């Protein structure tokens, strides 16, 4: 009889309480949550103004690392490093492309959004555009780098570029 109470107690302690989600941080269902490792510390979110980086580097093709070295994000730390570089293409047929390349060295993926906004200029509408997606974690993928880009037309000036990201 004691073994029955022990099993019931173990199951009850692992079952989620009200307000607790059935899907835990590491993807285990609630009834297995007593077996999961403790949750990791929250890593800081990325929130960078990219205007000076994009506007000051103009390349017709993706630059080499010697031409445009990566910059390390100021809040990178032991176990989670994010490096980036940004540029734009020269104006061709009244359009140019804004780009950012992100490289991470971490056991986690990172979801990045790179975008640009511009105010309305006379009769021309403003600009609100972005490209987003994950950068794969290092060690499990050979794609720890990713380039995000979008095309900008001739009617937009004074564009503010930004990049946000969250670890996941």
Account of the protein in words:
The chain is mainly beta and 168 residues long. It folds into two domains: 2-35, no CATH class; 46-167, Immunoglobulin-like (Sandwich). Helix content is 11%, strand content 35%. The strands form two sheets. Strands 1-8-5-6 form a four-stranded antiparallel β-sheet. The radius of gyration is 23 Å and the shape is elongated. The protein starts with a helix and ends with a strand. Residues 17-28 have low confidence and may be disordered.
Structure at a glance:
With 168 residues, the protein is mostly beta strands. The protein is built from two helices and eight strands. The strands form two sheets. It has a four-stranded antiparallel sheet with strand order 1-8-5-6. The chain has a four-stranded antiparallel sheet with strand order 2-3-4-7.
Provide keyphrases for this structure.
168 residues; mainly beta; Immunoglobulin-like; 11% helix
List the helices and strands and how they pair.
Elements: H1 2-14, E1 46-49, H2 51-56, E2 71-72, E3 81-88, E4 96-105, E5 110-118, E6 127-135, E7 145-152, E8 160-167
Could you name the CATH topology of the largest domain?
A: Immunoglobulin-like
Overall structural domain count = 2
The shape, in one word, is elongated
Q: Roughly what is the average pLDDT, rounded to an integer?
A: 79
The CATH architecture designation of the largest domain is Sandwich
Q: With helices defined by DSSP (H or I, 4 residues minimum), what is the helix count?
A: 2
H/E order of the elements? Answer: HEHEEEEEEE
> Could you name the ranges where pLDDT drops below 50 across 5 or more consecutive residues?
17-28
CATH class of the largest domain: Mainly Beta
What strand order characterises the main sheet?
1-8-5-6
Number of strands: 8
Distance between the termini: 44 Å
Helix content: 10-25%
Quick one: biggest sheet? 4 strands, antiparallel
Radius of gyration: 23 Å
């Amino acid at each position: 009889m004691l073994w029955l109470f022990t099993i019931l107690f173990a199951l009850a302690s692992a079952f989620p309480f009200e307000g607790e989600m059935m899907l835990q941080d590491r993807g285990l269902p609630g009834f297995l949550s007593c077996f999961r490792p403790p949750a990791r510390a929250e890593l800081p979110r990325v929130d960078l103004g990219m205007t000076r980086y994009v506007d000051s580097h103009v390349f017709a093709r993706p630059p080499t690392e010697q031409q445009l070295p990566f910059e390390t994000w100021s809040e990178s730390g032991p176990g989670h490093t994010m490096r980036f570089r940004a540029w734009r293409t020269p104006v061709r047929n009244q359009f140019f492309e804004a780009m950012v390349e992100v490289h991470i060295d971490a056991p986690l993926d990172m979801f990045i959004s790179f975008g640009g906004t511009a105010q309305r200029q006379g009769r021309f509408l403003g600009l609100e555009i972005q490209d987003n997606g994950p950068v794969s974690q290092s060690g499990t993928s050979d794609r720890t780098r990713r380039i995000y880009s979008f095309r900008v037309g001739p009617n937009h000036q004074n564009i503010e570029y930004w990049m946000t990201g969250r670890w996941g």
